[in-house]
Design a protein that fits this description.
Length: 97
């Protein structure tokens, strides 16, 4: 009888940990660039509903591609693309200035 209760408590604990770290799991799957910060927020403030909710929202929002113009020369705009900690440069468009 004690073995069944112990097994049940272990299963409940594992299930609770998975629920607790859902924001971290989502951030990992989405390869968010601020994964470490989301993990830290989730670990230290996830026990509060507000901290857990902020970490959850942050894990979804932080997945957008960021583009910025780094150089404009001879009618070409070069865009610096940063996504998932990878840096790549590409020429977007030719136009007359």
């Amino acid at each position: 009888m004690d073995t069944n209760i112990n097994l049940f408590l272990i299963l409940i604990l594992c299930f609770g940990l998975v629920i607790y770290f859902i924001p971290t799991i989502i951030a990992s799957c989405n390869k968010c660039e601020n994964f470490s910060a989301i993990f830290a927020l989730n670990l230290f403030l996830g026990w509060t509903f507000i901290g857990w909710t902020i970490a959850l929202v942050w894990s979804f929002v932080n997945n957008e591609k960021k583009d910025r113009v780094i150089e404009a020369k001879q009618n070409k705009v070069i865009i610096d693309s940063v996504q998932n900690n990878k840096l790549g440069t590409k020429i977007i468009k030719n136009f007359d200035i």
